[in-house]
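Sorry to interrupt, but I need a hand with the structure work. Please put the record directly below this note.
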Amino acid sequence: MAQKGETLVEVKDLCKNFGVTIALSHVDFVVKTGEIRGLIGENGSGKSTVSSIIAGMQPASSGEMFYKGKPWKPATMLEAQKAGIGMIVQEAGTIANISVAENIFLGNYDKFKNGPIINKVAMISEARKALEKIGVTNINPPATMTCRNASSSRSPSACTTTPNC
């Protein structure tokens, strides 16, 4: 594990275009271990865009990123999450009619597989631990997702791996 104060994530000259729309223009910043950073700006200023690029949700148009001193260009969110980078999105990111536990581990079921069978008891147990880790005790992991409980269950998914902070 990195020592406190070491560079964890570095973004250099990052740009993102959506057609002719410039979403990010030459962004630079550094996050060191032990730091908590907030991205503040008006709607449309690129906060979610830069975060989503680091988290592997979309590619940059140009620029460089480094994670733990090595070039960082995650192809997917799963790749980023396996390396210790996750993002909690503003929008509801849950799927109705599957359990809270299944939503928390969405795309990350392999750790519960034994051949073609998913060990739901183990998944529910790990989901309960993730919820408790962030102080949530009023959500039942085996419960089926509905519109009513969808908004509060995605954040634990970022707590299911050990973060690098």
